[in-house]
Design goal:
The strands form three sheets. Strands 4-3-5-1-6-7-2-8 form an eight-stranded mixed beta sheet, sandwiched between helices. Strands 9, 11, 16, 17, 18, 20, 21 and 24 form an eight-stranded antiparallel beta sheet that branches. An eight-stranded antiparallel beta sheet has the order 15-14-13-12-19-10-23-22, with no helix packed on it. The chain is about 25% helix and about 30% strand. By secondary structure, the chain is an alpha+beta fold. It is elongated, with a radius of gyration of 33 Å. The chain folds into two domains: about 50-285 and about 525-555, Alkaline Phosphatase, subunit A, CATH 3.40.720.10; about 290-520, Jelly Rolls (Sandwich).
Length: about 575
Amino acid sequence: MQNRKKYKEIIFSIICALAVVAISCNKDFVRTLPDKKYTDTAKASFGERKVLYLIVDGARGSSVNSANVPNIKALLPSSIYSWVALSDPDSTRDVSNWANMLTGVKKEKHKVLSDDFAGNNLATYPVFFERIKEEKPNAKIVSFASSATFKNKLTQGTTASELFSTDEQIKTAVVNSLNTDTAQLIVGQFNDIREAGAKYGYNNSFPQYKAAIEKFDGYVGEIIDALKKRKNYANEDWLVVIASSGGGKFNIPPNENDNTVFSNTAANTFTIYYNPKYKQRIIGKPFTGNRYLGRTVRLKDTGIRAEIDTADIFNIDDTTKFTIELKVKKNEDKFFWPSILGKRPEWSSGHPGVGWVIYLEDTYWYFEYRGTKDGDYHQCRGGDLPKGQWQNLSVKCEIRAGRRYIRTYTNGVFNNELDITESGSLSNNSKLKLGYLNGNGHGTPDVYVTDIRFFKVDVPDAVIGNYACETSISEGHPYYTFLAAYWPGTDGQGDRIRDVGPQARDFKLKGNYQWEDFNDLICPPPAGALAQFVPQTADIPAQIINWFRIPNRQAWGLDGRVWLDQ
């Protein structure tokens, strides 16, 4: 009983303590909120959001970056920006690039492919001015353009759209609008840089092109000055977007060409998103692949090739598990059936003779074989091989549940599989041949082939993927002890491609060969994958819509992404 009374006293004390805390907390809370009405709006808290959008045609990002552009660079400490931004790498027309920048989708959707806009799909994917109007019917949008096509075809939804004959007039119109207008979105389209590039060349080595870039920078200075002198600027929140719609064709030096989309000068743009509250964020060139350099032989036509006379170790019988890997760089876009590595009596129409061949067809590659049992040939397709890029080809034979399978991989990524069980042995008494293989009914190669590995084991998929883009093999490779042969192919001199594996079976070079230096990337990611890491022209509408706090509706199907300053 005594304990129960004591327990009640404890509970009472706790309740009183909590009450005191609650009262104290409530007093503090009341003190921090005086009796005053608040309006929780973006305008009151952050300033009215507005956008200035300057589109400049033909300005290569790298050229703008290296020019004397103090006004543009003054914005960078408070900007999200990139000098390696991208337009559509396959687009060759201003109208397609403009459509990307004004619809927020790529040409596959908006279908603006020609200057006459034939077959366009702007009804489904309209310019983003109309998207803004859907959510903010009273929003004032004005556009000033130097192109009649831009004005007449891509400014639907604007409150006012005007055409001018010079970039200086565009600048003046934008400045006048900033001085007097209440527009939420002001667009200016400038064309002088593109005209200078088309006439003289798209590079700062041409003084006229560089001068056009620097003149545009002067316009930017006047425009930003007018923006900051607006009477109500302190109560406004401006996003300034300056972006080129596309670059221009220019032959960059070989040592700057990495054979990726970033060496496509026509697609090289720049994008700047400026707001005084932004933290600086520089978006640079992403990782594009491992550097691969050496000295090798160009295998070309019927004459320049290599072969191994005694090649029994490379026979593939009906129980052999194997993995063959090699790196290939093509010198043409498409080929039609030349062998690049094979062991069979001949390589001819009808695919006669037991054996195997790795060959090129169109833009891709195949592993082809004929065995001793089923009397027919079979082909297992690999992946596409872009011209001028080192790619890793792998083919292996593995046994699963008593069945044998051929599997192909490109840059470590699985391509295709065929059941080889009924084909029997692929063994023969033929030489192992690198480059042209004698026969008829097929083309001739023009390729570099290096880093050839022949394993007498079915290397696991994960290991193939992990090591595909390595430029050499060492004892650290988990299947190094299974190597029957390894030809780096970068000897740099002599009449042989030496086998540094256990058998020392060297390829003997034939024909009028020469050793050539190379310094390239190996296994660069595809253009689409790389483009995701930098701003693209189709991103800009999504960025502006987000700035206006308009929800990006799934039904709109926008392709672009929003870039943040952190």
